[in-house]
Structures are given as structure tokens and as C-alpha cells.
Amino acid sequence: MYGFSVQMSCSFDEAIGKVTEALKSEGFGVLTEIDVKATLKKKIDVDRKPYTILGACNPKLANQAINADPDIGLLLPCNVLVREEDDGAVTVAFMDPSAVLGLVEQQDVREIAGQVRSKLEKVRDQLG
């Protein structure tokens, strides 16, 4: 499995705000926000439900990971997906850093991945 998720009973915009605040509480900032719905509409004229990818980063842990393996940036930041379901519920899904960073064959990186996963699970728990 490469991720874990939680469902929220609020509007999509509220979910984005709550996710961003919960990430902050665990030391993450949002580096990127990709509005997939708007991009697909603009580029290929496809209509879809709200679907946004947040690129989350914990600077201290990212720095440790970069020190352990300078190419780790290929696997950063941690993606957090916020999507509206057909029934109006909002799903927030988190990339599992242990699964992704497990590709790196360095124990230091795997330990950092475990720390990041633990923090993201706390974010998920705040939302559920």
C-alpha cells in the first residue's frame, strides 16, 4: 500500500483549510498546491469533481533526508490528496513516506520516513 486516508464531512474548501492547519501543527508547510480539476479543464476541457494535490514538507526532516541522500529530492515532497467524492464527502489521502522512501536503500532515510509517516498519521487523526 502506498497511502492511507480519512473521510471528512465538510465542504472541499473547508477540508483544504483544515488539512493545511493540521499539517502546520505537525511541522509541515504546503510548498505546492495543484488544482487538478482546473488544470484538466483548461488543458483538455474535462470536467471533474474538486481534486487538489498538496505538496507537504517538514523542513527539518527534509533537511535530514537530503543530508542522508542528496538525490532524495526526487521523492519529495509528501503528497496529500484532497478529493471530493460522488456523494459529496471529501477524502484526504496521504502518501506513505515509508513506502516511497523505502525505495532508498539507506537505513537513515528509512528511519526518517518512519518519523514522517508518524507525523502524517497524527494529521490524519486530527481530521477524522
Topology:
Layout: E1 3-8, H1 12-25, E2 29-35, H2 36-44, E3 51-57, H3 59-68, E4 78-84, E5 90-95, H4 97-101, H5 107-127
Domain DUF302: 34-97
Features:
128 residues, alpha+beta, TATA-Binding Protein, five-stranded antiparallel sheet, 5 helices, 26% strand, UCP021774, TT1751-like_sf, DUF302
Give the helix tally: 5
Instruction: Return the average pLDDT rounded to an integer.
Output: 96
Structural class: alpha+beta
Number of domains: 1
Care to count the β-strands? Answer: 5
Largest sheet: 5 strands, antiparallel
> How large is the radius of gyration?
15 Å
The helix fraction, in percent, is 40-55%
CATH class: Alpha Beta
CATH topology: TATA-Binding Protein
For CATH, the homologous superfamily is named as: TT1751-like domain
Unreliable stretches = none
Gap between N and C termini, in Å? Answer: 20 Å
Query: What is the percentage of strand-forming residues?
Result: 25-35%
Shape: globular
> What order do the strands of the largest sheet run in, or round the barrel if closed?
1-5-4-3-2
Please provide the ordered H/E string of secondary-structure elements: EHEHEHEEHH
Architecture, CATH level 2?
A: 2-Layer Sandwich
Domain DUF302: 34-97
